[in-house]
Amino acid sequence: MALIVHKYGGTSMGSAERIKNVAARVAKWHRAGHQIVVVPSAMAGETNRLIGLARAICERPDERELDAIAATGEQVSSGLLAIALRHLGVDARSYAGWQVPITTDSAYTKARIQNIDGKRVLNELGRGAVVIITGFQGVDDAGNITTLGRGGSDTSAVAIAAALGAKECLIYTDVDGVYTTDPRIVPEAKRLHVVSFEEMLEMASLGSKVLQLRSVEFAGKYRVPTRVLSSLTDPFMPLDIEMKSGTLITFEEDEKMEQAVVSGIAFNRDEAKITVLGVPDKPGIAFQILGPVAGANIDVDMIIQNQSVNGTTDFSFTVHRNEFAKTIEVLEHEVKKRIGAREIFGDTKVAKVSAVGIGMRSHVGIAALMFRTLAEEGINIQMISTSEIKISVIIDDKYMELAVRALHRAFDLDATNGRNGPHPENPAVAHAPPN
Amino acid sequence: MALIVHKYGGTSMGSAERIKNVAARVAKWHRAGHQIVVVPSAMAGETNRLIGLARAICERPDERELDAIAATGEQVSSGLLAIALRHLGVDARSYAGWQVPITTDSAYTKARIQNIDGKRVLNELGRGAVVIITGFQGVDDAGNITTLGRGGSDTSAVAIAAALGAKECLIYTDVDGVYTTDPRIVPEAKRLHVVSFEEMLEMASLGSKVLQLRSVEFAGKYRVPTRVLSSLTDPFMPLDIEMKSGTLITFEEDEKMEQAVVSGIAFNRDEAKITVLGVPDKPGIAFQILGPVAGANIDVDMIIQNQSVNGTTDFSFTVHRNEFAKTIEVLEHEVKKRIGAREIFGDTKVAKVSAVGIGMRSHVGIAALMFRTLAEEGINIQMISTSEIKISVIIDDKYMELAVRALHRAFDLDATNGRNGPHPENPAVAHAPPN
Prior knowledge:
Chain A is α/β, with parallel strands linked by helices. Chain A is built from 15 helices and 22 strands.
């Protein structure tokens, strides 16, 4: 018997039939003697619908109110799952973030979890109930509803697993694991049976939609064994097979992992590029530009400052596309005049493509192969950023698919190797087409 | 300057455009120097959509979970209204029932308000903000979300007005006041400028959809001056005209009110009739039948016990149609055998039609006129119930419209008199067609 946290994404919760399927799966785990906490996302499309309602009234709605509105999506799906479980004869109760409570800071629309009080939940588990906790949300010290930002339900699940000391956190989603890249773009993409925490961190931060970045950070910080697996398989499949399916995020690297130089190609179109032209090249200038941006609670990803010419330089960085307008506004009003910049401009039509792999550490020439591959396809590189286990480039977004396919082939990911391809123990799952 | 509570129904909150209209109206009141608390319903159709989701999973969903789901409708509409007000430059914040808090008992789907803590709200009003409070819901002592039942937002509004000592509670809805009957059924129906608390109580309990019964009870108990008026008029109409529009529910009866013998014809199709046949006629039998029904938290409306024949009698009563199946179940399992009843049967195809009027007290022959009118139309009366100011009959529901039209004419309500007809001061409102 173990305490296990299940997380189900929006597609898995997308209809009455799918919710019944989730309930059947949870009931199977519960009947096998496990203590189960379930963290559901809102039904697919619901969060967008809610935000759309707010935007129909005001282009930039008040964020406290937006959170109160958006948080209802998970309250509904959690209640529906409780109803479905009780219908199967399983005692189940849903709790909103504020009822647990899950305490966060007050940064509306991107709050951070500060504390999870597990007493009430453990009490319910102790008396044999399945506990359902709304993902994506919490409550601040003043009793206001907050949300954790897009994909926040993953973070909720991992944080709850950490707070309760769960044995494993199972992230059920509409794909059957983490792939070498998105199979919708590269049909030859292969599922990884195991991925290191660091690789997953890079993939998540680079836009692989499988897991939200902060959930991986949480998993790493608290060493929560986390598995990504499909909710679209037969809910009645034997538990021992299900327990080995999907992709396990591990904290121990082994030799086999080092063999694959690059384990995956990640990409996203969520970023926008901003350049501040003609910045005086003097100490503190980066802070003077990015300080107000951070102050407006905007996350910055890549940052590039070129060599100065004639005492001025150009400063570029990327932000989430949704924050592009806000960032430009902050720069125009709070930064431009103060630092004496010549011009501020940006581009939202960019994409980021990255090669990620633990093996990169011990191999040279990865960057060269990546740049040559892109050059051969005639793709211009606009920005470059590297870390120990990844190389990212910003390119014109119309070339994104082309770049991903070319790199997937160049790094030999189309071939089956030790970390990917059909799982010998579980061919049924490995062949399930990702949705 | 006064503290005023506004309540807006689902149709008034039915779209982004309508919510902007509500915001414009609230802003007008706020800018005139009033302290405004707004209690919105869920957007039209939303509560049904949410309950439909639950029912798609389970015919009789768990009521705690159903409440958590249904309560989200008002959380969304309240957030949207706050966004619309802030967009107009008016400081506004929304609060869910649990954030106020509005404390209720734990009778899910039909909870009763026990306490409203006005501190937080008065504090916000004091600093000049408009406060928006979700209607329809509260929180019990254990921190579970509860709802007050259909139309509960009216009750929320009146209860909040009472708790805060508001000067007036304005119930904005899609009709421009209380009519002598539903104008959709009788085009000659007239708007009443004033209605007594007792008449309103009877009309609400008899199914006039304008105001929920418990809200009228609250208004009466705490003597909250309550006005029903239209949200579909021009939001920028002068405040002094708007303040006199609609129908005022008053606690002082005047002579003019006594003149109209019957002030309105109310009706509903929400009830179902249940008969317990062959009940032994002995003391305590009514309690043995209705005790378990009340214990299952089912409200009973009309009750009739016939004269006994050969030591047994027949016992009939009505419940809400939604509770029909549950009531039959309770009777079959907990009552039938114990009391030795012969048979239990019921009918959901019934309607209740009532004549209501303060003037009835001092006039005879009202019942006779009512029964004669129905007989002349060939309508059979199945059950009769009377109070000091109303007479109700249960009939086959296919005759409901016919009965309402005939009675409206018989009691001379088609004619204009002192309490109805176009308002001389405000013809624009009086002519606005009810939606």
